[in-house]
Every structure is written in structure tokens, then in C-alpha cells.
Design goal:
Pfam families: ABC_trans_aux. This is ABC-type transport auxiliary lipoprotein component domain-containing protein. The protein is α/β, with parallel strands linked by helices. The protein is about 30% helix and about 30% strand. It has three helices and eight strands. Helix 2 crosses helix 3. The chain starts with a helix and ends with a helix.
């Protein structure tokens, strides 16, 4: 009888421990820099608009893995185990920039590198991400050196650097990613203004 009660107690304790462990399972969240906006391009031109290509976009090696890296000050990054990118950061940023340029330039003739052989862009946008970091609960930083090449002009490409920063609305990775999306939106605006000035 004592053995039976002891076994029952051990079984109950085991089940209790297992249920406790099951209740603390951490799920992994996935994020994207590409946040498509509802609706078509703004003020689409009758002739289809300017033809623009985006890419290649290069990123630091720390951004080539799925785990989200924050920080970056002094070359030190913090990798999140349960917060990951849903795709390749360079491709996601290319798509995000292409979306912004499409809307701001009023054109659907936008493609990301490598583009179809039948696509002949007038403007090519190249970008080198120097840093994408920031502190959770504080800010998200994005530094990009970018260039615009105009096929109708044989001169030197327009080369610029943009250092962008957005305050976070919450101390979590979701807010950090949203802030980086806003940084990319601002970057798209600056590049679009450059393209418009060259097209005049």
C-alpha cells in the first residue's frame, strides 16, 4: 500500500513538473523590414512613370543571419534567440525601398535586382548598409551609403550617405523593427527626391 501511494505521489509530482515546463515554452516571433502599404502608387503617371531598379543592397555579415541583432555601439551586438527575420535582410530591404520609391515617384515600373532581361531602368539605386542597430527601449539607427545612376547621363553617379534614427514606442523587438521600417521610409523619401531632381 505504501509503495502504491509512493508511486502515485511520484506520478503526480512528475505530471506537475511537466505541466509547469509546458507552460513556459517560448515561441519564436518572425519579422520583416518590408511593410507594404495599402493602395497603389501615389499619382501614377499616364505613361507608367519612371523606370527604376533597386539593388544590389549589401549588408554587414551580422545581418546575414536570421536572429535579429540590436546594439552595434563599439562593434558589439546582441543577438535575439526568439526574435528572427522572416527572410534575407538585403532582399527585404530592397523590396521595402522599391515599395517606397514606387509610391513616392508615382510609378509601377520598379524592380529589384536582379531584374528581368526585358526591363530597362533609367535609374539604378545601389545601397550599402553600414549599420542597422540601436538599443531596445531607446532608438533604432540605420546608416546607409547609397548611389543613384541615371542611364541618360554619362556623368558620375550621385553618391550620398544617410544616417537615420527613430525613437522606439515600446521596449521590445516589435517596436524596434517598426522603427527600422520608418527609417527605410525616410530613406526612400530622400532617394526619391534625388531621382526627381535628376529627371527634370
Amino acid at each position: 500500500m505504501n509503495n502504491l501511494m509512493r508511486r502515485a505521489s511520484l506520478l503526480g509530482l512528475t505530471l506537475l513538473l511537466l505541466s509547469g515546463c509546458a507552460g513556459h515554452v517560448t515561441t519564436t516571433s518572425y519579422y520583416s523590414l518590408y511593410a507594404p502599404q495599402a493602395g497603389a502608387a501615389l499619382n501614377v503617371q499616364a505613361d507608367g512613370g519612371l523606370a527604376v531598379s533597386v539593388g544590389p543592397v549589401t549588408v554587414p555579415d551580422i545581418l546575414k543571419q536570421t536572429r535579429i541583432a540590436t546594439g552595434g555601439e563599439g562593434g558589439r551586438f546582441d543577438l535575439a534567440e526568439y526574435h528572427r527575420w522572416s527572410g534575407e535582410v538585403d532582399r527585404e530591404m530592397s523590396r521595402a525601398l522599391a515599395e517606397q520609391l514606387s509610391r513616392r515617384l508615382g510609378t509601377e515600373n520598379v524592380s529589384i535586382f536582379p531584374w528581368d532581361q526585358h526591363f530597362a531602368p533609367r535609374f539604378r539605386v545601389l545601397a550599402d548598409v553600414l549599420n542597422m542597430g540601436g538599443v531596445l527601449g531607446s532608438e533604432a539607427n540605420l546608416s546607409v551609403r547609397w548611389a543613384v545612376l541615371d542611364a541618360e547621363r554619362n556623368g558620375e553617379p550621385v553618391i550620398r550617405r544617410s544616417d537615420l534614427s527613430e525613437r522606439l514606442t515600446a521596449p521590445d523587438h516589435s517596436a524596434w523593427v517598426a522603427a527600422q521600417q520608418r527609417n527605410i521610409e525616410k530613406l526612400g523619401g530622400v532617394i526619391a527626391e534625388t531621382i526627381l531632381s535628376l529627371s527634370r
